[in-house]
Amino acid sequence: MVIETRAGRKLAYTETLPRTPGSARVARRLASSALRIWGLDELEDAAQVVIAELMSNAITHAKRQAVRVTVTRLDRRRVRVAVVDLSRELPRRRHVGADAESGRGLTIVDTLSGGQWGVDPLPWGKRVWAELSEVPGE
């Protein structure tokens, strides 16, 4: 689904998905499609990994049965990927040992986004987002 919000707002692709493991694949395809349409193919690999990590966290920790995925074009070279879920429990980066099988997701998000990620608490849940740029640090 494509949405364009009120005048002065950004163009975005968004979809509500069930909170199931298969939805991560759908979210990755949504991000890839948006980036190709916008001519931001260079960001596709990073966006797929970031959105998969954000979806994985929501699938594992959220309480309700649906999540909302959004890919927003911020400007000519930057996008924001976000996952909204209905849990108010905030994610946090963990430092895990080399043998740990999980717990690295937000560290990966932090690395791929150049530290440009965050959490917006909402009255009924949260939005976890990351910004990706064709030029790192922008």
Describe the structure.
This protein has one domain (2-133): Histidine kinase-like ATPase, C-terminal domain (Heat Shock Protein 90), CATH 3.30.565.10. Helices cover 30% and strands 30% of the residues. The protein has 3 helices and 6 strands. Helix 1 packs antiparallel against helix 2 and helix 2 runs antiparallel to helix 3. The longest helix is centred in the middle third of the chain and has 18 residues, at 44-61. It is globular and about 35 Å long. The two termini are 28 Å apart. The relative contact order is 0.18.
Question: What is this structure's SSE topology?
Answer:
Elements: E1 2-4, E2 11-18, H1 22-37, H2 44-61, E3 66-73, E4 78-85, H3 105-112, E5 117-122, E6 125-133
Antiparallel strand pairs: 1-2, 2-3, 3-4, 4-6, 5-6
Radius of gyration: 14 Å
Q: Into which percent range does the helicity of residues fall?
A: 25-40%
Sketch the major β-sheet: 6 strands, antiparallel
Strand composition percent: 25-35%
Alpha-beta content class: alpha+beta
Total individual domains: 1
First CA to last CA: what distance? 28 Å
CATH topology: Heat Shock Protein 90
Mean residue pLDDT: 86
